């Protein structure tokens, strides 16, 4: 069987125009036979997508539901919030809404951003281990010069510290920045490139091999490194769930939830799970898509820890720690029309709002975990999907 010649995707002089998008849709219909009338239906301007996508043909319409309201007592997020969630999974928004009602009627969720960093992680290689060791000593004495070179590329990024590990004749580094309201991966890449070029030029040791990434930043991959050394924002959400509220709204008790938590912790350990609760990725993904975050960052952001305890007066202390929530309120997809509207629903569009958004993420995860765990213990998990979800 002969293989047809390659047919390149059409590009026009003004490649971000309705004409260009229409030309590509017609080309794809001719090549594949697929009809794209719904993909072609959108309200945004193709010209607004120059920094967001290539070969634009249209949109995929994702349903957006609203969960809540949830009462958050945060350092940055304070008050009642209606949370937009983009998902195709039936019962998801309803479950998160139920969890938000439980925590709100118990007094709300307390949220705290403990620290925040974004990284790029260059690799330097030398002739032998002693040269690598001397290079590390040189870095110690020239960190101010390295910082100046890095920060010359950005008005918002600040180089806070450089981690380093020597393996054989290699030095693995991890440049840690704060990035303002941007997620900052590209910002950190550009800053670290400038710093590394200064280091390559001025190092007293001969560098035999260099790479801008030695992979210890674990960009868009889960890692144990990011559980210990935050990538993004380390967010803690905690709530004391009142016994009466849990019994009335979830038909379970603090003791039953706590008992199951003790057992599921072993199951998570047995499976090698990256997250210690029921399903953090569900809420994070739905909120990320709605607000224009880089959806691949869910893999890092969803990892973390759940801790529970029974209080002296018989209530349930419930906490979620997410060490690497990567979110932004500027840049990326946050400025697109519908995503900006969803951020505006949360009061998180624009300057000075990234920590507020991270706290909302933490509160959302806690509410969703509480609701699902309660449904499992009340034996309502399957019946709820039968009534509202994909089992229908």
TrEMBL record:
Its keywords, alphabetically, are: NADP, Oxidoreductase
E.C. no:
1.1.1.34
Q: Which InterPro entries match?
A: HMG_CoA_Rdtase (IPR002202), HMG_CoA_Rdtase_cat_sf (IPR023074), HMG_CoA_Rdtase_eu_arc (IPR004554), HMG_CoA_Rdtase_NAD(P)-bd_sf (IPR009023), HMG_CoA_Rdtase_sub-bd_dom_sf (IPR009029)
Q: Which Gene3D superfamilies does the record associate with it?
A: 3-hydroxy-3-methylglutaryl-coenzyme A Reductase, Chain A, domain 2, Hydroxymethylglutaryl-CoA reductase, class I/II, NAD/NADP-binding domain
**Which enzyme type, at the first EC level?**
oxidoreductase
Family of this protein: Belongs to the HMG-CoA reductase family.
Q: What is the name of the protein in this document?
A: hydroxymethylglutaryl-CoA reductase (NADPH)
Q: What is the lineage of its organism?
A: Bacteria, Pseudomonadati, Pseudomonadota, Betaproteobacteria, Burkholderiales
């Amino acid at each position: 069987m002969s293989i047809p010649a390659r047919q390149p995707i059409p590009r026009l002089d003004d490649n971000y125009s309705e004409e260009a998008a229409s030309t590509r849709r017609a080309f794809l219909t001719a090549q594949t036979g697929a009809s794209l009338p719904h993909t072609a239906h959108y309200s945004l301007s193709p010209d607004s997508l120059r920094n967001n996508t290539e070969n634009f043909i249209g949109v995929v319409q994702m349903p957006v539901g609203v969960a809540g309201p949830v009462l958050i007592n945060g350092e940055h997020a304070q008050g009642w919030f209606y949370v937009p969630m983009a998902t195709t999974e039936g019962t998801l928004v309803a479950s998160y809404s139920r969890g938000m009602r439980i925590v709100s009627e118990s007094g709300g969720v307390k949220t705290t951003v403990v620290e925040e960093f974004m990284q790029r992680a260059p690799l330097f290689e030398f002739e032998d281990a002693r040269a690598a060791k001397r290079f590390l000593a040189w870095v110690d004495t020239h960190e101010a010069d390295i910082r100046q070179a890095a920060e010359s590329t950005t008005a918002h990024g600040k180089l806070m510290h450089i981690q380093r590990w020597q393996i054989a004749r290699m030095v693995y580094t991890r440049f840690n920045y704060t990035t303002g309201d941007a997620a900052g991966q590209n910002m950190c890449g550009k800053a670290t490139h400038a710093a590394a070029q200064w280091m390559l030029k001025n190092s007293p040791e001969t560098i035999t091999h260099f790479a801008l990434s030695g992979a210890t930043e674990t960009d868009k991959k889960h890692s144990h490194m990011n559980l210990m050394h935050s990538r993004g924002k380390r967010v803690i959400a905690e709530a004391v769930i009142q016994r009466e509220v849990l019994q009335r709204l979830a038909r379970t008790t603090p003791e039953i939830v706590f008992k199951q938590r003790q057992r599921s912790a072993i199951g998570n350990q047995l499976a090698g799970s990256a997250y210690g609760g029921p399903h953090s990725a569900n809420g994070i993904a739905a909120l990320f898509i709605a607000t224009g975050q880089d959806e691949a960052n869910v893999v890092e952001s969803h990892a973390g820890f759940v801790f529970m305890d029974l209080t002296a007066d018989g209530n349930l202390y419930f906490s979620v720690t997410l060490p690497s929530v990567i979110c932004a309120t500027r840049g990326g997809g946050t400025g697109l029309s519908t995503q900006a509207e969803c951020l505006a629903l949360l009061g998180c569009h624009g300057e000075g709002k990234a920590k507020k958004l991270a706290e909302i993420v933490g509160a959302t995860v806690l509410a969703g975990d509480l609701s699902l765990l309660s449904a499992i213990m009340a034996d309502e998990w399957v019946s709820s999907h039968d009534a509202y979800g994909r089992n229908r």
